Amino acid sequence: MKQVITVLLFGLLFNACSIDKDSAIERIVDDYYKIYNKRQDIDKFIGFYDNDILLEDIINGDRIEGKSDLKIFLNWGNLNFKILESNSLKITE
User: Is residue 83 part of a domain?
Assistant: First the structure.
């Protein structure tokens, strides 16, 4: 009986950790898209990426290596860019 209770407690503990991890990931994703939609804080947005990011766009042929290349590629300082809607990207699930 003691072993069954121990297994149940470990199962509940593991499940609780999983729930906390999921909610932390949800917060990160929510922050990511809020910052992306506002397009105001490039450094905070770039902070979501690893220093050694490698992005290869197979459609346009772009290859982005590192955060500095990503910052240049995104070009958030472009004065000709206009946000058309406040919720240009909205994820519901």
Answer: no
| Residue 5 placed within a domain | no
Give the pLDDT confidence of 14-28 residue by residue, as tens digits: 555 555 677 889 999
Per-residue pLDDT band for 88 (boundaries 50, 70, 90) equals: low
The number of folded domains in the chain is: 1
Tokens of 86: 């406040």
Token digits for 67?
A: 């955060």
Strands 54-56 and 63-65: antiparallel
Distance from the Cα of residue 76 to its chain's centroid: 18
Phi and psi, residue 56, nearest 5°: -120, 115
Q: Which helix (H) or strand (E) holds 24?
A: helix 2-38
Could you identify the residue written with the tokens 């949800």?
A: 26
The two three-digit tokens of residue 7, written as one number: 């297994």
Tokens 């909205």 sit at which residue?
Answer: 90
**54: containing domain:** 28-74
